[in-house]
């Protein structure tokens, strides 16, 4: 807590000057990384809105193993839970969501909408009607960017 007061009555009057910073959190896909400007563009999965976020070494960034990494280690295509200050678009924290997964060098995949399933690398996944729109939005974004799914 921060405070200030006159010396003569410092024990009686303390004014709290700390104000909580407004922050916004969402899960999204990193669509670009500018290491020179130290800026990220992150597309929110639920809304398809891109947000430009500034980063520095004070941000708490964790990889999929919950290890600390630097902003310059972030890559296009990574799915991250992102929290940033709304006042200056500064990154507060980033981490790989618990439900994120990763397959590399996948050339065999298929969707079966009649069975609400998809097969990726010989693994079958079921999805619900609620999740299908979000999944297809994400898949379209990844295909559009010609990237791999990174978690």
Can you describe what's shown?
- 11% of the residues lie in helices and 36% in strands.
- It contains 1 helix and 11 strands, in the order βββββββββββα.
- The protein is elongated.
- The longest helix has 17 residues.
- The N terminus and C terminus are likely disordered.
- It has a 6-stranded mixed beta sheet with strand order 5-4-3-7-8-6, with no helix packed on it. It has a 3-stranded antiparallel beta sheet with strand order 9-10-11, with no helix packed on it.
- The chain has 151 residues and is mainly beta.
List keywords for this structure.
single chain; 151 residues; mainly beta; six-stranded mixed sheet; three-stranded antiparallel sheet; 11 strands; 11% helix; 36% strand; disordered N terminus; disordered C terminus
In short:
The protein is mostly beta strands and 151 residues long. It has one helix at residues 129-145, and strands at residues 3-4, 15-16, 23-34, 39-44, 50-54, 60-62, 79-85, 90-95, 109-112, 117-120, 123-126. The longest helix has 17 residues, at 129-145.
């Amino acid at each position: 807590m921060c405070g200030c007061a006159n010396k003569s009555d410092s024990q009686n009057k303390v004014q709290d000057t700390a104000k909580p910073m407004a922050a916004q959190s969402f899960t999204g896909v990193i669509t670009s990384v500018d290491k020179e400007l130290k800026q990220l563009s992150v597309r929110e999965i639920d809304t398809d809105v891109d947000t430009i976020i500034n980063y520095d070494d004070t941000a708490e960034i964790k990889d999929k193993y919950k290890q600390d990494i630097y902003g310059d280690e972030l890559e296009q295509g990574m799915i991250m839970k992102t929290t940033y200050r709304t006042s200056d678009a500064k990154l507060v924290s980033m981490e790989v969501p618990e439900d994120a997964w990763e397959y590399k060098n996948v050339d065999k995949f298929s969707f079966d909408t009649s069975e609400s399933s998809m097969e990726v690398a010989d693994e079958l996944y079921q999805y619900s009607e609620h999740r299908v729109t979000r999944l297809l939005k994400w898949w379209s974004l990844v295909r559009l960017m010609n990237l791999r799914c990174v978690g």
